[in-house]
Protein: 2-C-methyl-D-erythritol 4-phosphate cytidylyltransferase
Organism: Deinococcus actinosclerus
Amino acid sequence: MRVAALIPAAGSGTRLGLGPKAFVEVAGRSLLGRSAAALVPHVDEVLVALPAGLTLPRDVPARAVTGGDTRQASVLALLRATDAEVVLVHDAARPFLPGAVAGAVIAAAREVGAATAALPVADTLVRAGPGGDWGNLIPREGLWAVQTPQGFRRDLLLAAHGAALADGFAATDDAGLIARTGGAVRLVPGDARLFKVTTPGDLALAQALAPVWDAAPV
Ligand SMILES: Nc1ccn([C@@H]2O[C@H](COP(=O)(O)OP(=O)(O)OP(=O)(O)O)[C@@H](O)[C@H]2O)c(=O)n1
Ligand SMILES: C[C@](O)(CO)[C@H](O)COP(=O)(O)O
């Protein structure tokens, strides 16, 4: 079964505030370059969705497509650009991908049809009240924070995207689209280092981790 890595990298990086986020560099290498390099050993091809008008950096061994206005639209554009039987969707914004997690997600996707990296929630959770003060405590037992990579049989994910498009349904990730169609999604233990670079604080963390990671990638 051929496996394709699909990297949505067409975001504008509004919360980070440094322009298109996938091109932001950490210790001399772009977030996109780091994510793509981590995926290459696990897949037969890599496809990247880019903002309109931008081209792939030279160090990214991939095929580019133009992304959409949302992450969901960018993933759909990527899905339509490959005929691989299995796809591994991974945010460009998660540059530190342990090889064991990528391998486990692909294996689970082959077995179940859909799988995602995720971590059990470790913090106390509360829904804020109207004034921004403490509202209701959310019991955290059984709650997982969803990461990428997420692996799928391509036909299942394409059908789930088609159903969402028909209904005008927007999801924050692809596993959620599968679950919405009644499909099973296996939760695979992720990794704290797989955090998403979203805010300036996350970028500072990435800059601190990069030298350690580059000396001994996992
Ligand atoms: N229209 C979009 C929006 C997001 N993404 C990608 O989806 C991943 C997760 O999105 P996020 O972290 O929210 O990135 P941005 O949309 O760039 O960030 P922001 O919401 O702060 O603008 C990123 O790799 C981003 O490039 C994409 O391919 N196409
Ligand atoms: C796909 C994702 O990374 C899983 O946690 C997340 O939902 C992306 O959210 P964003 O707001 O598009 O960064």
User: Anything to note?
Assistant: Residues 71, 91, 146-148, 172-173, 196, 198 surround LQXTBERG (ligand 2) (CB under 6 Å). Residues 200-215 form the longest helix (16 residues). Helices lie at 31-39, 71-79, 99-112, 154-167, 174-180, 200-215. The radius of gyration is 17 Å.
